[in-house]
Write a structure and sequence with these properties.
The complex is a heterodimer of chains A (283) and B (271).
Chain A lengths: L1 H11 L4 E3 L5 E3 L5 H18 L9 H11 L8 H10 L1 H29 L1 H4 L2 H16 L2 H12 L3 H25 L4 H8 L4 H35 L7 H8 L4 H29 L1
Antiparallel strand pairs in A: 1-2
Chain B lengths: L2 H8 L3 H19 L7 H5 L1 H13 L3 H5 L10 H29 L2 H4 L1 H16 L2 H12 L3 H25 L4 H8 L4 H35 L8 H9 L3 H29 L1
Classes of the chains: A mainly alpha (283), B mainly alpha (271).
């Protein structure tokens, strides 16, 4: 009889002391959420000191003007020119897709051996898996844009530096995701094969690989999706693709920037829809 | 012939399919390279470039790192890294706050199937837009400063956060809500005692995860002038100042790994 009574009382009152129906008093425990709230508030305050807000730089009308300039034809160009320009962007678009495709496949293949070396359950030797993890963490933390900047230095402006950047980025992220999968596979078949006299390689090939392959393919599609999104803007630092069109036109031809953005949007959206459809089919 | 041999013989010849697949892949990759032009002069000196690069990368600029000596403190990498963290933190916070209504809007549990589809579509549109492009546009309205970075991160985060929040709300157990109905709780009490306790852990864990991602993207937003490390990064890369670039890269790696460790520790405590 007392229980619902206490519940409603607990609900409606925020008092820390609650008198139960049998006359006893209990204290509501201190809610730890307030510590979290305090820490977040403090961090927000400290960080906001680093970001000075100067209202004189806010020019919302200019933002509106730029947006209108982007999505309407410039000067004496007509809407027909605008759409014709969209068709002209076919080559940068193919470059972008090529970059992400080649980078995803090559990077993922490179990631396979590293992922095996980083998996504790296969390698078992700290002096192998710790360096392997360090390498993957290094590549994983450097943003694709920065990798592209460095690649441009070595092979010059163009698609190749984009491929290199995407490859290295994929290498880092794929090896990380893959080694986590390898570490969670069922090791019983592996041990069974080893006990029948199979070598470690054979046991890996027939016991671990079949378990990893479906996940690998699903990750491959997912990373391709990420790579299409990031390769659209890699051109901004000289790595080819749609991004380079934006970079070339950002100062004078806002309508062309706008057209590239529309194209980028359509491409990324369709790749994303395709990828989630394919991954759902795989499961 | 034993039965085992017969079975083995009947096994489909997978290697043909595999071979065709591999050949098709190789051709496709070869085609992907067709658009690339190779700067042979630069490639020929790749050994020298690598040497210069590694020499530069190994040559840390301690003054530049901590903003001492010829540098002001607010020109140092540590300060810029803190600004980058600040952009990511405040941006993620704003994004998370803005994403909560979107999360409810895209959850079938709360608004029903059809409205949820619309909410989802809005989130997909936000998610598709690359951050850098958003920053390029916002820079025109908010100037070349960190505030633009915060807004970019905040707006872009809504896409993923909203989607994951909606999933968290959809996975929620509905029976506490019915129980609260039974004891006569009103709407606010239902949210406070029925929904928040169930989704709070999920939402915080998702937000932490997004913060992790945002730190990484905040490092490059400066390339288009939205504050943080990116501005000096692109300056150093364009002038091939490997020593400065190396110092910045070191800061990025350390910062991202630290945030990664802290965020995954906190997340494992939450779940």
């Amino acid at each position: 009889m007392g229980v619902p009574c206490v519940t409603t009382k607990y609900l409606v009152s925020s008092m820390s002391k609650i008198t139960l129906t049998n006359g006893k008093t209990v204290t509501k425990p201190f809610n730890k959420i307030w510590i979290v709230v305090a820490v977040v508030a403090l961090l927000l305050y400290l960080f906001s000191l680093l970001i000075p807000f100067d209202s004189s730089t806010v020019k919302l009308e200019e933002l509106k003007v730029i947006l209108i300039k982007m999505f309407t034809p410039k000067g004496n160009r007509t809407w027909e020119d605008y759409f014709k320009y969209l068709l002209k962007l076919k080559n940068p678009l193919i470059d972008t897709l090529n970059m992400s495709f080649a980078g995803t496949i090559i990077g993922s293949l490179m990631a396979l051996p590293l992922a095996v070396l980083a998996a504790k359950n296969i390698v078992k030797k700290p002096y192998i898996y710790i360096p392997a993890r360090t390498i993957m963490n290094l590549f994983r933390t450097i943003p694709a844009m920065v990798l592209a900047l460095i690649a441009v230095f070595f092979v010059g402006i163009g698609v190749l530096s984009g491929i290199i950047a995407i490859t290295l980025f994929t290498f880092g992220i794929m090896s990380k995701m893959l080694y986590e999968v390898i570490e969670t596979v069922d090791m019983n078949p592996f041990e069974a094969l080893e006990s029948t006299g199979a070598t470690k390689t054979e046991a890996f090939r027939y016991a671990v690989l079949p378990q990893v392959t479906p996940v690998f393919v699903s990750y491959l599609i997912y990373i391709f999706e990420i790579n299409v999104r990031s390769s659209t803007i890699l051109g901004y630092v000289g790595a080819g693709g749609i991004g380079s069109v934006i970079k070339d036109n950002i100062l004078y031809n806002y309508d062309r920037v706008g057209a590239s953005i529309i194209l980028m949007f359509v491409v990324v959206l369709s790749v994303q829809l395709l990828s989630s459809f394919l991954r759902r089919r795989l499961q | 012939m034993s039965r085992a041999d017969e079975t083995l013989k009947r096994k489909p010849k997978r290697w043909i399919i595999n071979l065709v697949f591999v050949v098709a892949m190789v051709v496709a990759i070869a085609f992907s390279f067709s658009g690339s032009s190779i700067n042979w002069t630069r490639l020929r000196t790749i050994g020298l470039s690598l040497k210069v690069m590694f020499q530069g990368l190994a040559d840390f600029k301690y003054d530049f790192l901590f903003g001492t000596g010829v540098y002001q403190f607010d020109e140092g990498v540590v300060y810029m890294a803190l600004v980058t963290l600040a952009i990511a933190f405040i941006g993620t916070f704003i994004g998370a706050i803005l994403a909560i209504p979107f999360g409810f809007l895209a959850s079938e549990n709360i608004v029903g199937k059809y409205v949820a589809k619309i909410g989802e579509a809005i989130l997909v549109i936000i998610r598709v837009f690359p951050e850098i492009v958003l920053a390029i546009i916002l820079v025109k309205g908010f100037g070349m400063n960190a505030v633009t970075g915060v807004l970019t991160i905040g707006l872009h985060s809504i896409g993923m956060l909203g989607k994951l929040f909606a999933e968290a709300i959809d996975n929620m157990d509905k029976s506490p809500l019915e129980a609260l109905d039974a004891v006569g709780a009103n709407a606010w009490q239902k949210i406070r005692y029925g929904i928040i306790p169930q989704v709070a852990a999920d939402i915080s864990s998702i937000t932490l995860y997004r913060f992790d991602i945002n730190v990484r993207s905040a490092t490059v937003l400066g390339i288009v002038g939205a504050g943080g490390l990116g501005a000096s990064l692109i300056l150093a890369a364009e002038n091939w100042n490997w020593d400065i670039l190396g110092t910045i890269l070191l800061a990025i790696v350390v910062m991202v790994l630290l945030v990664d460790v802290v965020s995954s520790r906190l997340r494992s405590k939450l779940v």
